[in-house]
Design a protein that fits this description.
Strand content: under 5%
Number of helices: 10
Largest sheet: none
Number of domains: 1
Distance between the termini: 19 Å
Length: about 240
Amino acid sequence: MADRTAETSPLVLARAAGVLYLIIIVLGLFSEIFVRSSVVSPGDAAATAANVLAAEGLFRGGFLADSIMFLSDVALAVLLFVLLKPVHMTLALVALFFRLTQTAVIALNLLNYHAVLLLLKGPYTSTLGAAQVNSLSSFFLDLHSHGYDLGLILFGVHCLVLGYLIAKSLYLPKVLGYLVMAAGATYLIGSYTRFLFPDLVGAVSPIYLVAIVSELSLCLWLLVKGVNLERWREVTGSNSGTT
């Protein structure tokens, strides 16, 4: 029984990680493409406020999707740590804490998102005026966007370390490691551009395709293939799923 558990454990962990990764990707794209992109009218605070109120259920759905996403991310961070600690314990811990810190930043940043509804649905219009409330709502949405990019700076470093561990693991394909490192560079370039060179955000946006391909590839590999058990045993020096 112990031997059987030891053999299947890495595969179970890998596939659980793949499921969580898929949840994160789907919900992240839903929130960004189907929610925020549909309600935000750049440069028009009044139209944005009207869109949010007209699609309040969808807007709240974006909050729900993002909250499930970061809850899944905490579990995924732990699973990736367990899967990659046989490669290098210290670097696996570094990757774990960068991802958890990123998750904490994005979770706290959801308050900026929810502040929009607090402004638009609260008693603030009577005291501040509709124009000011609309402007503040757009400001909080912009702050949420910047907060997301702040989290992605941390995530970019996580991806660089994670990709290195994958490339060195022997039980996961090297090409996946290189793709994840490329995603890390993409997140760092894109996020720092927003803070340092905001006029160039539109110009660098296409590079995020690299990150989408990278993370989707890792997700599907974990779901379909998992890890190479023979190589796993060689690296760990035993039949167990831990070191």
